[in-house]
Each structure stands twice: as structure tokens, then as C-alpha cells.
Amino acid sequence: MRINGHLMLNGKKMSKSTGNSLSMQESIEKFGADATRISLADAGDGIEDANFEEKTANANILRLHTLIDWSEDIMKNHAELRTGPKDNFWDRVFENEINSAIKVTEECYGKAMYKDAMKFGFYELQTSRDLYRDATADVKMHADLVKLWIRTQALLVAPVAPHFAEHLFRSVLGESGSIQTAAWPTPSAEVDKTIADAAVYVRGQTKTIRDAEILMAKRKAKGKDTGLKYEERRPKELRVFVARDFPAWQDAVIRAMKEHTTAEGVVDDAKVREMLGAQGMLKDKKAMPFVIALKKRISEFGADVALNRVLPFNETETLEQASSYLRKTLGFRAVHIESAEESLANADQLEGKDGFDRKNVEGAEPGAPSFAFYNVSV
User: Which domain of life does the protein's organism represent (predicted)?
Assistant: First the structure.
């Protein structure tokens, strides 16, 4: 049994007297059955009044037609796609995200959570396709994964948009039977959290790099960093400094927290301060703010997660595999992945060259590399 409120239209109560009214027949004539059904699913599942947005319905018309056009075009040129092993980083990320979408969407349908079913099985699945397409532009998408994605997309959205799904299934993929008699898709493998974490990391670093470059440009525009010669519109390259180890002071704080935090996440503040004081750490102005930040993470994620400092993937390898995506997405001529420790060992020779700055590199930590932007001559 589910409870929900009334259906709102464009954020306002439906009322014929004010003209804010839309019947099912009118909606189908205006937006089509599938766009209407997706927008109704997207209107909400909770006890609050659901809100049918006409702009969402219009956007879904475009989304459905664009997806059909893309699918038809990619299947016509299927022979031009890559074949062979599906073993590069982005292949594994894409297949893992398809498997995750199958699992999560099935759970959402089972709980009658149609808004979330559309979120994971329609909108975010297309976001995964977009990232894969952009990330593999230099090597092309894998033919098998593209076909798997189209078939999975059709099956996941079929309960809500059956006409669209049927067209993809029979006309685009050439399946002989109806999608209404097809089985729910089976994941090709268990969802790999390590691959998922690596993908989240790459997306996060892409945003961090972009934000850092924007901040640099803003500071220069305001008259700060006047000595900076970097021009973002000129040909440019990026250096990413990856740290193998955390700073010694952070490791000391982590050890103290691990020794004096219970399995339930209760921190013995007095003993933590005592242990840090014995090591002279309380004089370090960075120590206590770091303790406070860790306590917050413990309250959010639990002690095991918050105090686990080991990345589940190889950071350097992940960045190297994603370097072509970073280069293309962020507009660099080249992206260089370097060891922070090795660079610091040669800091005297590197200082001032190709954007190298000792303090900047010293700030690198596992999971949070530092960056250097510099211009190059063409």
C-alpha cells in the first residue's frame, strides 16, 4: 500500500477555474504517452503532493527522440566501433555502471519507487553513456558494450515508456520478439565497488582541476598572483603530482584516533589529546582541526571507513588510464602524472620549471593530488 498526495501542475494546485488544468488525454496529445508517463514517474513517490512539470515533459520528448536518433545511428555504424577485449579502464567503468543500474533499478521498481527507478535506470544510465562516449573518443567505444547499453536501457525503461522501449528493442536492435515478453536483464558480473570508487575519483578530480584553474584565473583578474604567467586560453599542459604517503603528522593523529575510538565510533577525547601531547603534536595548529574533521567523518561514515586511509585502487594507474579523458575534457595538450615524492627529491632542479612549486607539491596527499598548470609553445 502506498500513500501520496494530490497531483500538482507546474508547482501549483490543479484548478479549472484558474486554467491550471491538464487531463490525461490532453497530456498524451501534447507530449505523447511515453513522455507523459516518464514525467508522471518523475513527479514524485512520497506523501507530498506530486508535481507534474510541463517543462520536464517537453525535455523528455527531446530526450527520447535524441536517444532514438543516437541509437539508430550507432547501430548503423556498428562495424566502425572497437571490438576485441573489453579491458581498458573506461570499458570496465561503463560495464560496471550498467550492472549497477540493473540492480538498483530492479530494487526501485520492487518498492514502487518510480521516480528513483527513472533516476537510476534512465537519466543516470544516459549520463554513464555520455561519459563513456567522451572518455573513449580517441579509441572508440566497444561495440559489445554499446549494444548491451541500448538493450539494457530499453529493458529498464520498458515498464514506464513501453512504446519507446519496444522501438529500441525491435527496430533498432532487431530483436524478434516483443520487449513485453523479454526477461529482465541479468548483470554480467557483481558490481565492483573498487571500479565504482575509481570512477567517482576521476570525476571528482576532473571537477577539482577545473575549479582550480578557474580560481587561478579569477585571482589573476582581481590583481592577485600578478607574477603568474599562466594564460588559460593559450596552449597549456597539466602536471598532476600523486603522493604515495600521507604527511607524518596526519599518520600520528590517525594512530591516536584508532587507538582511542570504539567500534561504535565513540572517541575518547582526553586520551587522544594525551597521546598527541606526548608526541608534541598539540603545538601543531593543524592537528586539532584534523581531529575535529575526523570525528565528523566518524559520525557520518563510522570509524572503520573514516579512519581507513588506504585507497581501494591504484591512484597513479587510474589517473594514467584517465589522462586522455582529462586532456580532452579540460583542454590540455598533454597531462603528465608524476610522483610527488620523486618530484620533491629533485625540487631544487625543478623549482620554477613547467609550473613546479615546492609548497604546492608538498600539499599532495593520497586521494588528493596537487596540480601545476603551465603554457607551452606550439
Answer: Eukaryota
